[in-house]
Amino acid sequence: MTRPDGEETYVGKAIPRREDPRFLTGRGRYLDDRNLPGQLHAHFVRSSYAHAEVLDIDVRPALEVPGVVRVLTATDLDESIRPIPWIRRPPEPGAELPGQSAPPAPLPELRPLAGAVVRWVGEPLAVVVAETPDTAADGAEAVAVSYRQLEATVLVEDAIADGAPELHEGFPGNVPFRTRYAGGDAEAAFASAPHRLHRRLVNHRVHPMVLEPRGVLASYDTHQEILDVWISTQRPHHSRLMFGQVLGLPEHRIRVGAGDVGGAFGAKEPMYPDEVVVAFAAKLLGRPVKWVEERTEHLLATTHGRDQVAELEVAFDDEGVISAIRGRVLGNMGAYLYPNSYGTISGRTGPLLPQSYRMSSIDVEMVGVFTNTTPTGPYRGAGRPEATYYTERLVDEVAAELGLDPVEVRRRNYVRAEEMPWHTPTGLDYDSGDYAKALQVALDEIGYDKVRQLQQGDDGRLIGVGVASYVEIGGVTPSAIAPMEGSPGLWESAQIKVHPTGKVAISLGTCGHGQGHETTFAQIAADALRIPYDDITIVYGDTETSPFGFGTFGSRSAAVAGTAVAMACRKVVDKAKRRVASLLESSVAEIEVVAGGYQVRGAPATRMSFAEVAQKALMLMKPLDDGEEPGLDATAYFDPPNYTFSSGTHACVAEVDPDTGKVEITAFVAVDDCGTVINPLIAEGQVHGGVAQGVAQALYERVVYAADGQPLTSSLMDYAMPTARRLPAVRTANVCSPTPVNLLGVKGIGESGAIGSTPAVVNAVLDALRPIGVRDLDMPLTPDRVWAAIEQARSAVRGP
């Protein structure tokens, strides 16, 4: 892109990521790359039962292992460590919000180590601290735990059934919260609708499975009374707050650094019990303590994602126009309500059920349920993929019920571009979007009409085409909206330091972990300051060197932090113009910004380079005007007035082998509208990664438990992550509807791929199978599951 004067701009340019050379050459510095002199190593003893009373923990055998320094259990921590606080939680009694009721009892405390009862396999019971990792592991193996096994529940529908074991006292039915989204008049809509359709839709449990598992390296300076923590996290400043609250330390005496983070996908957003214990051990023992999660631990102890069961009914007319949705969604919260898990189902799945459609009414209850499984939390999309899956499946079912093309049903129901902003029955205000245009681009790219013609052949091939449109919340969470959701407002800030050389360092409170922050934020600043991209350095991930911020999640970094960068740059430009005007004895109105500098309008001979201005702003040769300060440094804060709402349509062509049930994706197109695209190359990479995870959920991945709560997918031998060769080639395209919410017009792209892809794949497979009588399938669509459905349909045709 170029300016009217021919100067090249950086926003919109596909610049390779700055981060790539160090990552691709093995020079990234992750948690396990860090070590401190004299450090100890931690290894956790975890519950081997899903539900049991802990009768005794005998640590004496562990203490006899040479090299073991200390073993800590809950009794060593109870007086020293507070429970882990919630980021967002159901309202307290008497402080109910619309649609949100208070829990029946105080929420169960999340303690760093389990005490009298364990509630999931993998719950931390004790930690062994030793001189080497192997010694710590040997010590943990030597700890003897005596249990009395209790009845366990794994499935949400079993957990809420009469007579189910109560996981936490005061929570009959194992329900910690209920949130109802009711807008319009659903009862009247259903009463007057010519057609109704009910479906039970399952969004099964999966694992974020990041490349770099969690880890902590903590040390405590007893002289300065400073706790120093390196942790693989998405939210360094938030982690500092949590460490302070749990350990009883003032935040100014805690430093948290993230370094390079090898992926997160939402799993590194909360504070975990084991992370707190490592920091406590370092402070207690006066030596650095390091813990790096093993892959099996990661599968057992790091939060899982999705795991919802929806019973939904849709009302529609003869033309397929949908008027209302009603029903209930059960969310499996696992054994505890983790610090940020409440918002996934309550604050994201429920509000987004209307998706891109004009339905006037909704009445859906979101119900959290305790089970004897690993706690769940946000996983790429965090409630948005679930909502999209339910609604897009229902739209296809409506089309099938009426014998209509699902594409045409979507067109008849879309909110139109000219109707924006659009107020949904769940209370959201969509900012912008052209859903019909995104659909058409996807249809053209996938060759929709040709696929439909191919389906008419008589060669016995089972070919299907599926589409899925989506709307996602991004830019979370404006303070104007946050109180209504029971959470704090999540603004962001940017601090710009201008060196005398004209080089610029920008510090942020976000924390990149694969998004390309060092590249995209520099592109924004280079355009705003009119200086070379290479003159800008981006700093984040350390509470000592970056301003307070809420971190990177929820498709918020570009929209919120990126806007703060642009605003801070404007302040720098305004200061520079005032300084130049003073030096050239001109008015500020006469000073214009040109490539790399400033000049009196229309007088190139007066040009001063940005470096000259930066130096003269510090090395004062004359008194500053009243109200002016030396230098060009600036800080800006941005608290958006509303969410941003990215949207798009994904389309998939799939062929099913009728003899084996194997699904092959032969074409996949992702059309996304994320507003202004800062870097097309990075945006495309984000979509590719998200689609890979969405396809993985649709076809391969699934966390499985036995009836007694024992995990059956506790290694990569059992958990079926697809390799690159099993994933489809993905074509991408963009539709651009800039948001009015921020000055960049940016919405967000980090989670879109995981939102639209899963229902597109499932709809394609069901489209292929529907002609032979298969109407419904639960994910993942593995060959055995698909083959069984085909055989059942064939048997129904053959008869007894």
From TrEMBL:
Statement: the UniProt record of this protein carries the keyword Oxidoreductase: yes
Aldehyde oxidase/xanthine dehydrogenase a/b hammerhead domain mapped to chain residues: 25-151
Region Disordered: start-end pairs: 85-106
Keyword annotations of the record: Molybdenum, Oxidoreductase
Gene3D superfamilies, A to Z: Aldehyde oxidase/xanthine dehydrogenase, a/b hammerhead, Aldehyde oxidase/xanthine dehydrogenase, molybdopterin binding domain
Cofactor: Mo-molybdopterin cytosine dinucleotide
MF terms (GO), sorted A to Z: iron ion binding; oxidoreductase activity
UniProt KW Kinase keyword: no
Family annotation (PANTHER family): ALDEHYDE OXIDASE 1-RELATED, XANTHINE DEHYDROGENASE
Protein name, per record: Aldehyde dehydrogenase
Organism: Amycolatopsis taiwanensis
Taxonomy of the source species: Bacteria, Bacillati, Actinomycetota, Actinomycetes, Pseudonocardiales
